[in-house]
Amino acid sequence: MTNKEKYKDAFSALEPRECSFQEVEQMAALQKKTKMKIAAAIVTGCVLLGGTGTAYAMNVGGIQRMVQIWMHGERTDAVLDVTDDGTGYSITWKDENGEEREVSGGGIAYELNGKERPLTAEEYLEEWDSPDVEYLDDGSVWVYYRDQKIDITDKFDKDGICYVQVKDGKDPIYMTIKYQNGWGCDSKKYPDPKELWGVKQ
Amino acid sequence: MRQPVQELIERYQKNLYAAAFNICKNQMDAEDVVQETFVQYYTTKKEFESEQHIRAWLLRVAINKAKNLTVTFWKKHKCSLEDYMETLTFPDPQSRDLFEEVMKLPEKYRIVIHLFYYEDYSVREIADILKLSESNVKVRLSRGRAMLKDSLKEEWEDDE
Lengths: 201, 160
Fold this sequence. Notes:
- Helix content of chain A is 25%, strand content 34%.
- By secondary structure, chain A is α+β, with helices and mostly antiparallel strands.
- Helix content of chain B is 72%, strand content 0%.
- Chain B contains 8 helices and no strands.
- The A-B interface holds A 2-4, 6-21, 23-25, 27-28, 31-32, 99, 137-139, 158-160, 178-181 and B 5-6, 9, 13-14, 17-18, 21, 30-31, 34-36, 38-40, 42-46, 57, 60-61, 64, 67-68, 71-74, 88-92, 94-96, 98-99, 102, 113-114, 117-118, 120, 131, 155-157, 159.
- Chain B: InterPro entries: RNA_pol_sigma-70-like, RNA_pol_sigma-70_dom, RNA_pol_sigma70_r2, RNA_pol_sigma70_r4_t2, RNA_pol_sigma_r2, RNA_pol_sigma_r3/r4-like, WH-like_DNA-bd_sf.
């Protein structure tokens, strides 16, 4: 037997649990919703920095609005609309290849008394004006905020936490990012990972 | 070109799992990596040149995801390799020895060895998938082979 045959024999013992298309489909949908929900929950925590947030919105009848969003450092025209089921919002725009893209979500805001309520359209727009963290196929990690684009791939510490600052005009936005586990931000100081994720750092 | 996720799952699930396991050394983490890799394929709009391109992309994504899991302190699943190996059925004792010795290799040699011996990739293709230079891949392959030869003796041929 060749080494390749021996190796393949040895690794043939590995039998993964069946991964089904339905699972993949559900996970994709869940990831999208979860991302929106996490971002929405965080945006209510840093609403101060969003106070001057650029809504760039113009009513065009009903709830549908022409808006401008920042997408990967570029300002892009988009349409904000209420989703068909009436429980959230959709934003549609054309990407750099001219293809129509749509993201829908809504998320939940927490009142001071801890009560949950759906995000308003304004809050949803503010969410889009908040920084975004993206994990690319090549393993790199980027922070986008308006026209700012920062490669933070090598900035995570041994605990998987990265601290990075972006600018909202002249004012800083302090971001604390946990690798593939969301992020938080504040206009005064870096949010404490312990408070964000409830883990000992 | 794009191919339906269903077909890719059937065709490459086991390959992605083996590559991910090779890095994570953990069944549940490797299964998560496989699922997340297919989710990424499903959600990306990326167009591919060929089926080989898709296969290499899937492997690269799975390897990156598995590596990310190993560097984060956020280890989701803890089950020892020894415990998991007890549940595996190897064709013969030599296969078990080989599996065990491969798993003892440093990660940077392990994944190169795996792509060469399991996936039948050439040095150039491995360099492309792992974003390494060809000479770096050759060195890792050579050192990994030497370590396997050293531990497995006559069970491993000199095939450089």
